[in-house]
């Protein structure tokens, strides 16, 4: 959902009543919100004005990837005053609000001195990819996800079936998504399985992968070469346009157990 549709859908009397404005102002407000979301100057000013609770909220939800670009967030007028009264966190009822991913990314990208970005784990390098603050925070958050939660977040149904097939798992043995993801997660850290499976990989692709493991690089791009085998087996997962990621648990597994 684009920004215009988002605001036209959610910037209704339910929210406007909360901030004492009338429904007749909606069209003008929608135009203002779209302009603000594209203005780095405005977003920098907003980022420097946010309460600490709001900064933590933005950081926490920066990796909540969704198909429709809409993030559901608890609506708390005391903890999130600037986001609410500047029409970025919109009330939808039952103590919940919504924000658009583009707004979250824009605010995080322009936080400036008011935010401390999470540190990278020791020995990890992201130097091969240029990331804005939002993408960087998402990356660091994903690295530390438990493996089952990581795959539950990133695996689409189509990709999940492809990964299961390429990991030699029979889908007939599992009844639902959690069972399949659990089986995938176990297979991905199975030492004896990979010692045999990697013999079937292309030598140049495996050599490039080993080199990245040794360098602590966890991001993979098409510019570096073809990673189709690793994508098909779920070792790395796409999460940004043209960028795939290897979680820490698999980096450590391949470094300590395989290479």
Give a description of the structure.
- The protein has 259 residues and is mainly α.
- It is 53% helix and 9% strand.
- It contains 15 helices and six strands.
- The protein has a three-stranded antiparallel sheet with strand order 1-3-2.
- A hairpin with a 2-residue loop joins β2 and β3.
- α10 crosses α11 (177-188).
- The model has no long low-confidence stretch (mean pLDDT 84).
SSE layout and pairing:
Blueprint: H1 3-10, H2 13-18, H3 26-37, H4 40-49, H5 52-61, E1 70-74, H6 81-85, E2 90-93, E3 96-100, H7 101-109, H8 133-143, H9 147-154, H10 157-166, H11 177-188, H12 191-197, H13 203-215, E4 219-221, H14 228-232, E5 237-240, E6 243-245, H15 248-258
Antiparallel strand pairs: 1-3, 2-3, 4-6, 5-6
Helix pairs in contact: 1-3, 4-7, 5-7, 9-11, 10-11
Protein name: Plasmid pRiA4b ORF-3-like protein
| Range of strand content | 5-15%
Query: Strand arrangement, largest sheet?
Result: 1-3-2
Overall average residue pLDDT: 84
Largest sheet: 3 strands, antiparallel
The domain count comes to: 2
Properties at a glance:
Plasmid pRiA4b ORF-3-like protein; mainly alpha; 6 strands; single chain; 9% strand; 2 domains; 3-stranded antiparallel β-sheet; 259 residues
Write a compact overview of the structure shown:
53% of the residues lie in helices and 9% in strands.
């Amino acid at each position: 959902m684009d920004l215009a549709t988002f605001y036209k859908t959610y910037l209704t009397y339910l929210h406007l009543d909360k901030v004492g404005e009338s429904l007749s102002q909606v069209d003008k407000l929608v135009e203002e919100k779209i302009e603000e979301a594209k203005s780095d100057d405005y977003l920098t000013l907003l980022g420097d004005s946010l309460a600490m609770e709001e900064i933590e909220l933005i950081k926490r939800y920066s990796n909540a990837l969704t198909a429709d670009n809409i993030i559901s967030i608890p609506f708390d007028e005391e903890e999130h005053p600037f986001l609410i009264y500047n029409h970025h966190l919109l009330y939808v009822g039952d103590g919940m609000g919504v924000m658009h991913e583009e707004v979250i990314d824009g605010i995080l990208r322009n936080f400036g001195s008011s935010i401390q970005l999470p540190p990278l784990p020791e020995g990890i390098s992201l130097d091969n990819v240029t990331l804005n603050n939002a993408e960087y925070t998402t990356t660091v958050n994903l690295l530390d996800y438990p493996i089952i939660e990581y795959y539950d977040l990133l695996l689409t149904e189509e990709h999940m079936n492809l990964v299961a097939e390429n990991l030699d798992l029979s889908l007939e043995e599992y009844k639902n998504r959690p069972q399949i993801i659990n089986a995938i997660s176990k297979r991905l850290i199975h030492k004896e399985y990979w010692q045999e499976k990697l013999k079937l990989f292309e030598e140049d692709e495996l050599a490039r992968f080993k080199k990245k493991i040794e360098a602590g690089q966890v991001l993979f791009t098409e510019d570096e070469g073809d990673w189709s085998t690793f994508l098909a087996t779920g070792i790395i997962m796409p999460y940004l346009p043209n960028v795939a990621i290897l979680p820490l648990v698999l980096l450590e597994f391949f470094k300590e157990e395989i290479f």
